[in-house]
Structures are given as structure tokens and as C-alpha cells.
Specification:
Shape: globular
Largest sheet: 5 strands, mixed
Radius of gyration: 17 Å
């Protein structure tokens, strides 16, 4: 049975109350928030983002971010957060059911398997993830199979909170035209992004 994840839960404690990371959760969050603010300053206070509403009759939204790498200049990860309305009458997406995607290497190697098993990966974007990441357990990188604070996803969630983009009325005013093919074409698969990362890594070493 799929697990549930919301934006509020993800920002406050994605690991769950029994996670091994609980004891150092505040330290992790403080570190990530400092990195997030530093990254925003480097990029003039804005990340690239678009919002899509695939069905005009439903309050279901896709937020597509280009999240900058904290270690590699001019490297951006595609991060998509999907919000599905689970109860009528809400004015924000903070408690909508959330699914996720990122093509950051850490997402692929550490969390993709766990998210897939928990039913929290965006179905539309599963084909963008290396099949091995979906079928091989992350025994070394994530032996407890916690969700954890994956940086690219966490930064996307923080950006929504920081920019106060969680009100449904505001979101609808910023929706871009939905084109399924164009949306998929705009997102690199995890193997392509890994190659890009490794290429920049080689240049940095030189």
C-alpha cells in the first residue's frame, strides 16, 4: 500500500519519527537551510520553475524546478513535485498528497528505490530513472531505506515555502500551458544527468 507524503511533512521531518537521523534532524535542516539561502543569493534570489495543471478540472499540480548544484557550477537538476488534492475545501497545497522526482545522482542512488517501493515516485517520470535504481536496494547508501533529506528535493520544497507559492489561488495564476510531450522533453533522465555531473567532475580535477 502506498505511503503518504505531504509538503509540510517533507519540510519538517521526511525521515519519520523512528529514523536513525532523528537525533540530528535539526542539525541537518539548519545546514540545508544555510546552503539553500547561499544558493539563492548566488542566483539572484530565484530558481527557474514552472507550474503545470494537467487537468483543468482538478486541483492537481506539477512544480518543475531547475535546482542548481551546490558543488558544480552551471549544473542544474530537474526536480518535480506533484501535488494531488485529497480533500475538497483546502486553500493551500501544504497537505495535498505529494509525489516526487529528481535526476540528481544522490536521488537516484540513495532514494529512488525507497520512493518507488513506497509509491511516492511520479508515475509519469519513472521512465526517466535508471531501471537499476528502481530494482536494486541501496544496501550501502541507505541500508535503513529512509526517505531522508535529499538535497535537491528539499531545496524545491523550501523554495515553495520561501516564495509562499502554496496558495491554490496563487498557483492557478501562474500555471503554464500543459503539453505532455514538451514537459517530458524538458527533463533529462538520470543517466544523462549523471554523465553531465561526471564530466564536470573531471574538469574540476584537471
Amino acid at each position: 500500500m502506498p505511503k503518504k507524503l505531504t509538503l509540510n511533512q517533507f519540510i519538517s521531518n521526511p525521515t519519520g519519527k523512528y529514523s536513525a537521523e532523528v537525533g540530528r534532524r535539526d542539525l541537518i535542516k539548519n545546514s540545508l537551510e544555510r546552503q539553500f539561502k547561499a544558493l539563492l543569493r548566488e542566483h539572484n534570489g530565484k530558481f527557474q520553475w514552472k507550474i503545470f495543471q494537467p487537468s483543468a478540472n482538478k486541483n492537481n499540480f506539477l512544480f518543475h524546478f531547475k535546482i542548481p548544484s551546490t558543488t558544480k557550477k552551471d549544473l542544474f537538476y530537474d526536480v518535480v513535485l506533484q501535488f494531488n488534492e485529497n480533500n475538497k475545501g483546502k486553500t493551500t497545497i501544504s497537505e495535498f498528497d505529494m509525489k516526487v522526482f529528481s535526476n540528481a545522482p544522490n536521488f537516484m542512488f540513495t532514494y529512488a528505490y525507497v520512493l518507488n517501493e513506497d509509491g511516492l515516485l511520479i508515475d509519469l517520470l519513472k521512465s526517466k530513472i535508471d531501471k537499476r535504481a528502481l530494482t536494486q536496494e541501496p544496501d550501502k547508501r541507505n541500508p535503513r531505506q529512509d526517505l531522508g533529506f535529499e538535497k535537491s528535493m528539499y531545496f524545491a520544497g523550501l523554495y515553495i515555502k520561501d516564495a509562499r507559492m502554496y496558495y491554490i489561488s496563487q498557483i492557478k495564476n501562474n500555471v503554464s500551458r500543459w503539453n505532455r510531450s514538451a514537459f517530458l522533453d524538458s527533463i533529462a533522465n538520470t543517466s544523462e544527468k549523471l554523465e553531465e555531473y561526471q564530466s564536470k567532475e573531471k574538469k574540476d580535477k584537471k
